[in-house]
Amino acid sequence: MKYSNAYNVLPDNIVKIIQEYVNGEYLYIPRREEEQKKWGENSGSRSSLKRRNEEIYLRYIRGASILDLSQKFYLSDKSIRRIIGQQKKIMVNTNTE
């Protein structure tokens, strides 16, 4: 996150109003709701995990065991089962549309 001097981006009268509430402190101004990004969109983590989860499900339906998948992907059995359940729901929703 980059900091900007308020005097460089806001009119003087607005800076003075803000100073009445937060004089000299840092103030975070969030993005507008319609411009907010979901977790992992900037870094690519979201798409990377999506591909990983799809691969786990594909290997599972091709016969890989939960134990094999948990060892291959360094995840707990519980996490593998959760991913498989989520991917099944995604596949069902995709096929019914």
Explained architecture:
InterPro entries: c-mor_Regulatory_Protein, Homeodomain-like_sf, YraL-like. This is Mor transcription activator domain-containing protein. The chain has 97 residues and is mainly alpha-helical. The chain has 2 domains: 6-35, no CATH class; 45-96. The chain is built from 5 helices and no strands. The protein has helices at 6-9, 12-21, 45-61, 66-73, 77-96. It is elongated and about 65 Å long. The relative contact order is 0.07.
Tally of separate domains = 2
Using the CA coordinates, give the radius of gyration. Answer: 23 Å
So what's the oligomer here?
single chain
- Annotation, overall tally of beta strands: 0
SSE succession? HHHHH
Mean pLDDT: 88
Structural class: mainly alpha
Determine the fraction of residues in helical runs and give it as a percent range: 55-70%
Low-confidence stretches: none
Helix count, per DSSP?
A: 5
Terminal residue distance: 40 Å
Q: Based on Cα principal axes, name the global outline.
A: elongated
Largest sheet geometry: none
Please report which band the strand proportion falls in: under 5%, 5-15%, 15-25%, 25-35%, 35-45% or over 45%: under 5%
